[in-house]
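#structure-requests
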Amino acid sequence: MKTDFTFHPIGVIRSCFTEKFGIPRQPGLVPAARATLEVFSPYDRDEAFRDLDAFSHLWVIFVFHGIPAGKWRPTVRPPRLGGNRRTGVFATRSGFRPNPIGMSAATLESICRKDGKLTLELSGVDLLDRTPVLDIKPYLPYADAPSGAFGGFADRPPEKNLPVACCPAAKKSLADLEKTHPGFGELLEQVLGADPRPAYVEQHTDREEFGLRLYNVNVRWRVDDKEIIVQAVEIDTKN
């Protein structure tokens, strides 16, 4: 019997990733990536989160809100397969699903209440800013990381870890930025070191220059002999 369900978000993510390009392909790959989960009323009751701080990690169940509704695909091209081979959507974590629901394991840094709002501070996230959250659940190591488990075509973490350098102007900008965005340099190095370029770039184009946005900061960078060189780091004063 076909049944429809209506879900109401319990909160929203405020993330360092303000656009999709640059988001790590899985959680935990960029430990410096931070996010705040703002919990909505009436779910923001202190007792609802009692004892959650005894867990180091949690599962965030969310909606892929950056993907147009109804755009599910039966097969997709996973980045881990170089973007050249199609596989079934249910064998991937792609957002192009019949129901655009995702799950992500994040480190729970703290639970706070500020200005009347209950928030969860998270790290190691792969979540787009303003992502609606449907639920959270504690991560259980014995159940969620079973001994002998294997992961098909993504059995191991990605191997790419490109060195990141900065031109003099970008290095100065980063130093200045640390005054208002502490830890930004570490975040940028981890995001770029994970090589956020689309999987097809190396094989099908000669493109060397790219741009991404973290928080309200625009970054331009290029790839030169397997090294990433940051060319410009600029705060967007328009937004």
